[in-house]
């Protein structure tokens, strides 16, 4: 709540300043793809309210961690989707004489929400601190270099940064399949099953992001237009955040088992 109030206060102050001082406001405007951005905003908001509703009666502090993390994930995404739908969260980048519309707010969303998703998964697996730090470090590096790719003005360098970012994604997924799965192997059967489901969901969905990026506007190939690219990212984001959170928080007994210190393999 405090976060949301502070956030929108800053946005409001910033835009008021820009308009009253007649500063050059970016000329990028939202096109018909705004329909998907509004659906994203509403979907993330419903997800947030649902998780808050479910989490209200949870008293165990360890279990609360999963709720707090997941609620932050969809709250941040709802705010960033609103920023995109209302036309602030985008800019234009000139690449070889061609003007691309880039929704920068996606990266502002992902740089916070993807580490939080990995934290949820790591807590479920009972990972150690080094594994969590490596995963989150690789993830922030992936989104950071992905942001450079999106804002780069030389076409070949865009692809180069995309490659670097994709390399970080592959390394990250390798750790999910290796070290993190090994940590989860010590957990009771239901916890292991939930971990495997969520891990596979992450692998399948996250691999689609660089593909949508490269075949969409950002990859300059524009095999799919901005309209459909925005729709694809919205479906991916809702599945990777609300779908993931729903599966994670669905069974209280599994979370109880995951957090109980006496948890031993069945
Ligand atoms: C970019 C472009 C550069 C190459 C790679 C990317 C990966 C992005 C990912 C985003 C995941 C977002 C999620 C959001 C949650 O809703 C930045 C698209 C590798 C993996 C899970």
Short description:
The chain is mainly α and 266 residues long.
Which features would summarize this protein structure in a list?
266 residues, two-stranded antiparallel ribbon, Rhopdopsin 7-helix transmembrane proteins
Overview of this protein structure:
The chain is mainly alpha-helical and 266 residues long. The protein has a single domain, classed as Rhodopsin 7-helix transmembrane proteins (Rhopdopsin 7-helix transmembrane proteins, Up-down Bundle), CATH 1.20.1070. Helices cover 75% and strands 4% of the residues. It is built from nine helices and two strands. The protein has helices at residues 2-20, 34-55, 61-85, 105-125, 129-151, 155-184, 189-215, 226-250, 252-259; strands spanning 91-95, 98-102. A two-stranded antiparallel ribbon has the order 1-2. The radius of gyration is 19 Å and the shape is globular. 37% of the residues are buried. The model is unreliable at 19-25 (pLDDT under 50). Bound molecules: retinal (RET). Retinal (RET) is lined by residues 110, 113-114, 142-143, 146, 149, 162, 165-166, 169, 206, 209-210, 213, 237, 240-241.
What is the name of the CATH superfamily? Rhodopsin 7-helix transmembrane proteins
Average predicted local confidence, pLDDT: 91
Structural class: mainly alpha
Q: Uncertain runs with pLDDT below 50, 5 residues or more?
A: 19-25
**Percent of sequence in beta strands:** under 5%
Question: What would CATH call the class?
Answer: Mainly Alpha
H and E string: HHHEEHHHHHH
In whole angstroms, the N-to-C terminal distance is 40 Å
**Looking across the biggest beta sheet, what order are the strands in?**
1-2
The number of distinct structural domains comes to 1
Please provide the count of β strands. 2
Report the CATH architecture: Up-down Bundle
Query: Helix fraction?
Result: over 70%
Bound ions, cofactors and other small molecules, one mention each:
retinal
What best-fitting shape do the alpha-carbon axes yield? globular
Largest sheet descriptor: 2 strands, antiparallel
What name is given to the CATH topology? Answer: Rhopdopsin 7-helix transmembrane proteins
